[in-house]
Design goal:
With 250 residues, the protein is α/β, with parallel strands linked by helices. It has one domain: 3-Layer(aba) Sandwich (Rossmann fold). The protein is built from nine helices and eight strands. An eight-stranded mixed β-sheet has the order 1-7-8-6-5-2-3-4, with helices on both faces. Helix 5 links the parallel strand 5 and strand 6. It is globular and about 60 Å long. Keywords: Methyltransferase, Transferase. This is Methyltransferase domain-containing protein. GO terms for molecular function: S-adenosylmethionine-dependent methyltransferase activity.
């Protein structure tokens, strides 16, 4: 394994825009939820008439879909991701609009399918507004206390971390907005990190796990973790996800 300093330098300079994770290949692994969101989304897109993907990231998942509906739109609020998404999806004829989920720039009843993988925050009233009667919201959300092991390694105990993004709360909020939740599936998946570069890169990619993370501020903990990884002991964390399907009544 390369030196601690070399791994840090590499991870600090690597690109973290978009929602691709190929940089972690052979350096980290994550089990996937059993339902296969990308494939299920592709199936729904192939039969939709008009669809909207919210918080599309770099457009990676939409670009994997072999068949898109006659009208396909996407939004992204993070400027670096927006650039990637527009470049990636231009050849597919998808207009990626800069917008957050709280202010969707579309008329009432514009889409029969609204989707999102890992939205920043689902704005249920906006989702319900842009769906046609009988339309569907199909999404995979990040659940409570996702990667809490990494957060607590650097920041100590986080007793409040497990209270947000709870699927039960999201079901209540969706129903309060007038949607009917037809499916809710929950998964907890194992993640393993094998070198310190992978840790630094993922904390740059997902900065909400350790807010204001910098190498200098956490150097002693990084050195401790590097020693563990060099002993062949991976750092183990767990991601939480839930699949949610909600329908706007006819």
């Amino acid at each position: 394994m390369r030196s601690f300093e070399e791994l840090l330098t590499e991870a600090q300079s690597a690109d973290v825009t978009g929602w691709g994770f190929d940089w972690l290949s052979d350096r980290a692994s994550e089990e996937r939820p059993p339902w296969g969101y990308g494939q299920l989304l592709a199936q729904r897109l192939s039969t939709a008439t008009a669809a909207l993907d919210i918080d599309t990231g770099g457009g990676e998942l939409l670009d994997e879909a072999p068949v898109l509906p006659p009208r396909m739109a996407a939004t992204e609020a993070f400027p670096p991701n927006l650039i990637h998404a527009r470049r990636r999806l231009a050849s597919r004829g998808i207009a990626v609009v800069e917008a957050d989920a709280a202010n969707l720039p579309y008329a009432n009843g514009s889409f029969d399918l609204v989707s999102s993988r890992h939205p920043v925050r689902p704005e249920w009233s906006e989702i319900a507004r842009v769906l046609i009667p009988g339309g569907t919201y199909f999404a995979q959300h990040v659940g409570p206390a996702s990667a809490i092991e990494l957060t607590e390694f650097f920041l100590g105990p986080q007793p409040e971390n497990g209270t947000g993004r709870h699927p039960d709360s999201e079901v209540r909020d969706a129903e309060s907005a007038g949607l009917t939740v037809e499916t809710l599936r929950i998964s907890r998946s194992r993640m393993e990190f094998h070198d310190i570069g992978a840790i630094v890169w993922i904390l740059r990619k997902c900065p909400w796990w350790v807010p204001d993370f910098t190498v200098d501020a956490h150097l002693p903990r990084l050195r401790d973790l590097d020693a563990q990884l060099r002993r062949g002991e991976p750092f183990v964390a767990h991601s939480t996800r839930h699949l949610i399907v909600a329908r706007k009544p006819d």
